[in-house]
């Protein structure tokens, strides 16, 4: 879905006499970071571009302008040979990927990163619910980059990324350097829920008829 202010006003104040417009686009996307990233885990590098603070842009809003920051980080990561960027906030704490929320696993506990400057992802919330239903302990924390380096697993969530394992950060292997079992289990259940094969999550779905 996309919503934007119409074209009846010119300038940086779009509000006067300018109606909101809405559209919904649908297409087959496939694995956002590639099938190999799903099977073996994505490779991340820390971006030189920081996630902007909350007093610069509203990071919790899915606003098109916010993605300039993401695009710069993503292009930098791809140019360096990685699959995705890892963005830090202005204080050096881990924020998110260019288009994904981040989780890590340590000693059987799943840690979701705080979203003080991050998008409050619907997929993130869904995966937290699934993890708890599967019996995992989930904690929401503020984390540093070295905590991810030492994690047993790292994975990302997002509308496009779904649940994608992470095998490497800054060319350091995470855990065994491959897709971890917790991430793969969560991905399996999430995809079952998204395709109507999990009745307990039926309320998450809106069916569209052709």
TrEMBL record:
UniProt GO cellular component terms: cytosol
Record has Translocase as a keyword: no
Recorded superkingdom: Bacteria
UniProt entry keywords in alphabetical sequence: Amino-acid biosynthesis, Aminotransferase, Branched-chain amino acid biosynthesis, Pyridoxal phosphate, Transferase
Enzyme class: transferase
Database matches in Gene3D superfamilies: D-amino Acid Aminotransferase, subunit A, domain 2 (3.20.10.10)
Sequence similarity: Belongs to the class-IV pyridoxal-phosphate-dependent aminotransferase family.
Protein name: Branched-chain-amino-acid aminotransferase
Organism: Thermus islandicus
Lineage: Bacteria, Thermotogati, Deinococcota, Deinococci, Thermales
